[in-house]
Amino acid sequence: MDKDKRILDVCLTPALIENFDTDDTIMVIIDVVRASSTICTAFYYGADEIIPVADKEKALSYKQEGYLIAGERNGEKLEGFDMGNSPFEFMSPDLEAKKIAITTTNGTQNIEKVSKHLGKNSEIVIGAFVNHKVLLNYLRNAGKNILLVCSGWKGNVSIEDTIFAGKLIEDLNRFNQYNYSSDAANHARLIYNQAKEDIFGFIMDQSMRFRDKISLLGNDIRYCLKEDATNAIPVLVEGKFINKQEAAGN
Amino acid sequence: MDKDKRILDVCLTPALIENFDTDDTIMVIIDVVRASSTICTAFYYGADEIIPVADKEKALSYKQEGYLIAGERNGEKLEGFDMGNSPFEFMSPDLEAKKIAITTTNGTQNIEKVSKHLGKNSEIVIGAFVNHKVLLNYLRNAGKNILLVCSGWKGNVSIEDTIFAGKLIEDLNRFNQYNYSSDAANHARLIYNQAKEDIFGFIMDQSMRFRDKISLLGNDIRYCLKEDATNAIPVLVEGKFINKQEAAGN
What we know:
2 copies of one chain form a homodimer.
Chain A: E1 6-11, E2 25-30, H1 35-44, E3 49-52, H2 56-61, E4 68-73, E5 76-77, E6 99-103, H3 107-115, E7 123-127, H4 132-142, E8 145-150, H5 159-173, E9 178-179, H6 183-195, H7 199-206, H8 208-211, H9 214-224, E10 234-237, E11 240-243, H10 244-247
Parallel strand pairs in A: 1-8, 1-9, 2-7, 2-8, 3-6, 4-6
Antiparallel strand pairs in A: 4-5, 10-11
């Protein structure tokens, strides 16, 4: 192992986060379908800040403070919320300069869990196919260790998050700045390499979770796999995501 | 999903065991390199019972009770123990009718963790390449759900255990008696299918853990990947493994 290189590793589900040293590390939270993709999309359409909230009631309370509120459980939009968790609901000029509070079945609860394990001199950023290119630049310029944290599904692994983690490993590996040697990193890389020719088809073939919800989620999944549909870099600052890409004027 | 079929799933590391319902389930503990392979080998050479012990001092205390004691930490045999964790140390007529207490870096501690999560009407059995064929028969005849529990490495996943879990899924799938639909099960199956032509070469190529220890562990790893080198079915009964295959006179 080359000691001068940064460490690149994968946490296949937040339930395994305690295994990792997260000092001097950018933790990339990956919830491809759909929280990561939706948050990037909201920033791309001009949102000012996004607060991830694990609890439904707490998310509702932000309504009184002038926030748009987005809520989803088990794929369905929650009663009384402005939006669910479909990225298409966030593609609107109405989002310009708005503050949003969002709660989802899996993604926002994982953000809370992972943020409790944030190390010194570290940062949490959102990663998805839809911000892939700007994310790669951001990660390279940061010059820190990188931990790709897959949100997984109900405490376990998920195929789509593992695939995207594997893609980031392959892409970052080209720059020769990182060591990845863990078995988890290799799991992700190996699965990505089998999926990469047709990721939508692969996911549908492998995952009963998605086959069962194709009519509800099919268009969302297709969008969530679209590379570089946004240029957002959502970074968690004091419990809120802000868009660092936007701040830099890019 | 066919409701008449049994559930077949994979726990990629014991750290994820809480995710699973383990009632009416055979839990197969997989620690290919080396605890699972070594335990099968000890029974094949006639051992009468094997007590897995997480703690080193407790393992030593069994010496006074007439047990052979086997102890390993980080690949090395422990001072004062009769054997380490190399399966070759267990290939001896001296094992005939002996009781053995064993403690290893990773495997025996995981057995303790997993056995605390044993459900109703359930059982823990040891699985490895070296008992693959008899294990398949045993699992099919049991008519229960199957949870393949990979021991992994230091709380995270390990490539060799994932590969063997994937192999069992492919083999069990031929009998059309099981549903496997989890993303974890697919992770294992996908990685096995990339590795199956040359598992030793694949592991060496993928895992720095093993490349670094090839001089110490190379022969052990080759043996641990040898299918059907034994006919042992180690089953945990009241904290001790006994050999069910032997008891059945097969």
